[in-house]
Amino acid sequence: MTAPDAELILRGGTILTLDPQHRVVAGDVASRGGVLVQVGGDYTPTGHDYTIVDCAGCVVMPGLVQAHVHTCQTLARGRADDLELLDWLRQVIWPHEAALDPAALTCAAELAHAELLLSGTTAVLDMATVHHTEAVFAVAERSGLRATIGKAMMDLPDPQIPAGLREGTQASLDEAARLIARWHGAAGGRLRYAYAPRFALSCTDELLRAVASEARDRGVGVHTHASENPGEVALVRQRFGKDNVEVLDDLGLLGPHTCLAHCIHLSADERRRLAARGAHVCHCPSSNLKLASGICDVPALIAAGVSVALGADGAACSNNLDGFTELRLAALLHKPRSGPRALPAAEVVRMATLGGAAALGLADRIGSLEVGKRADVIAVDVGGAHVVPTASPWSAIAYAARGTDVRHVAVDGAVVVRDRRLLTLDVDRVRASARAAAARLFR
User: Fold this and answer.
1) Which ranges in 203-334 belong to alpha helices (H)?
2) Which one, of 362, 183, 173, lies nearest residue 256 by Cα?
3) CB-based contact 361:257 (threshold 8 Å)
4) Can you tell me the distance from the alpha carbon of 126 to that of 148, in angstroms, rounded to the nearest whole number?
5) Is the pTM higher than 0.90?
6) Phi and psi for 210 in degrees, rounded to 5?
7) What confidence category does residue 2 fall into, taking pLDDT thresholds of 50, 70 and 90?
């Protein structure tokens, strides 16, 4: 935890504040005890415990916030290519998750956290697998990532679900309650819990109703999938006689504390419901394209008043967790259908930062660089040949920058990446452990 009086000064960058005026200013970003105390201008340390990080030639901005990831799936990178969603789940992902023990899950989470932090993501909403979620929280505690995590919930009896992922309704709720008691608010508030029923097809009505009630009572979020794939949508209609969003709404799950991943195949009524309930949607363009699920109509969601965030999903479907890849795809993908002015650069950068913060229920703490917020900050080197000349910092970030351009990363005012080197995890050891664990799992 950052010492109460410790100061961090990110010196001399071009600052994208993401404040309500979307100001771009020059100078320093300074924090004390993890809280931003100055944005722009020259900052002079007030005490003796301070760190100055050179950000010349960088765009300094809020860390990226990914509102839908599966860090548990990282060891399956490249093992589930060229499949559509339901085959991908049944043939590879569910058997893989069922085989994960705490040691392998630790390796998967460490590899994911290293990739996320090195490429500028400072906060995530993470759906773990059914068991051993404690291991994912423990990695987040060590890595320095800001993480809202939930165990996947799958209590519906289904012969296509491996035995290692089946659970009883009450057992699922009891484990979630135990994890909340242990981890929600841990690491100075950096770690939080969100209920994570996998999707309507994996859960009983009893579980979904209980999640809706307990999430409200405990003051935690809800994170699930919805309307990702035509086959999934058809099965939901077959079981419930209605579409995903209506099902979730009728069961009491929709609200400002809810984030739904994907939401590709929505009706206009479903978009209106999401807006009316204040629920958030996480757009995952790489995953949706690779699984041939479709393209979420983000401009229509925004026009309906729905808050949208971005996420890479998992390395088993998008193959990497680089938030800049998702940012660029989101900025480009909707222009052929909705016109060249659809999702301009500044709007997509906002989705990747403040939009994600809102989906995590943290818009008052992170997502923009404003005095009083937590110091989750990244410095992106814009001196590369693929970015120069940097006519507009918004354009540079939305259309040209890559995760490998991230030079420095701070979370809660603590430097976790400096000069492209991760300080909290031994990356060489993490890579070696991940290779060994993957070889053992897929032998």
Assistant:
1) 205-218, 230-240, 244-250, 268-277, 285-290, 298-304, 323-333
2) 362
3) yes
4) 6
5) yes
6) -65, -40
7) low
